Amino acid sequence: MLRILDRYIIRKFLSTFFFMLGVIMLLAMVFDIASRLSEFIDNQAPFKSIVFDYYFNFLLYYGNTFSSMIIFISVIWFTAKMAQEAEIIPILNSGRPFTRFLRPYMIAATILMLMSLILNHFVLPRANRVRLDFEESFYRDRLLVENYHAEFPGNELVHYASYNSKENIVNDFVVEKYDDRNRLIHFLKARTATVAHGSSNWHLIDVFERLITYNDSIDISDQVINQKIHLIEKHEKDTVLPYRIEDMAIRDNIAEAMTYTELRKFIKKEKEKGNSNVPTFEIELYQRTSYPFATYVLTLIGVSVSSRKRRGGIGVNIAIGLLFVFIYIFAMKVTSVAATTVGFPPIAAVWLPNFIFGILAIFMYRIAPK
Q: Which residues contact 53 (CB under 8 A, 6 or more apart)?
């Protein structure tokens, strides 16, 4: 049962959080409008789409992304203010344990954590899909992919030198197909290749093909003697290939628009293709759960830091809080880079900052004024 103290602190916690969230998101939206307005005008983006398709989902995405940090600053702010106005001293002097004072903070943190979990797993993927579609249509820069390599089902290796989404042209397109004994049976190379979005009908220019068949009935160890090669050269060729350009030219943030199930299937598929960006997609998957749980850690640190009345006033507590925020962001960045560049496990990269700062939160809670 919630008592007056619980309702008072929960109300302060939530009201401060939503106020700071509104102010920060409003500023972010103003800066984004200033940088994108000319592109919206040049591309004749409809006002309704700008408001509802882009900025509504923009606020959802970035508000949720930075919610843990805003929660931390909010806790520092209103708790330090309570300490400066001597509201905490009577609570502790009344004989109540510090855990009792901490309880309403954890209740409010649980409310915000559950909201973030629901947004991450159910709401944001669909909202991001609308936002990214808008960006693709009205202001996102063209997509450039270089030195692409992938393995597709059926023992097919595909690689190309570059792809430009504006011209929709693939340069130095190469397909290699192998049999069950890992022998090359089909080699195709085209100077350029084009395909419509959503289609598997490819148009190739300056094509060179090599078809290789093996006579396995003759027991000859030398494969050069045992094979028959057929060469084909054409200026143009139309063919159907079992993949689309969307399978081979994707943006790094495409995972943001996928639900949990879609993202798991997508990661499995990209692993089979040997996509080097798989750790980035796995980080996106695990962050959807780890970030909301960071709310507890940051709330505990915030209360422990700001519940003491300091000579420098609220400013000192806020400075200490910002220092922790920067260190936490730096730790997340370091572990994410380690996962994408040196093979550090993505799940560990995502949860390690929470674990380290969780230990720090427990230590600070122990030395906090009781």
A: 130, 131, 133, 134
Instruction: Give the CA angle between residues 161, 166, 172 to the nearest 5°.
Output: 20
CA distance 140 to 177: 35
Tokens of 216: 């396995």
pTM of the model: 0.78
At position 184, the amino acid (one-letter code) is L
Model pLDDT for residues 32-44, shown as the tens digit of each residue: 998 888 888 888 8
Contact 236, 207 (CB under 8 A): yes
- pLDDT per position as a tens digit, 87-96: 777 777 776 7
Rg (CA), the chain: 28
- 3-class secondary structure per residue, 253-290: HHHHHCCHHHHHHHHHHHHHHCCCCHHHHHHHHHHHHH
**In 10 A of CB 293, how many CB atoms?**
16
Contacts of 7 (CB under 8 A, 6+ apart): 104
Angle 117-122-124 (CA atoms, 0-180°, nearest 5)?
85
Strand order in the sheet with 169-178: 144-152, 156-164, 169-178, 184-195, 201-214, 227-240
| CA 358/CA 111 separation, integer angstroms | 19
- The continuous run of DSSP H or E covering 172 comes out as strand 169-178
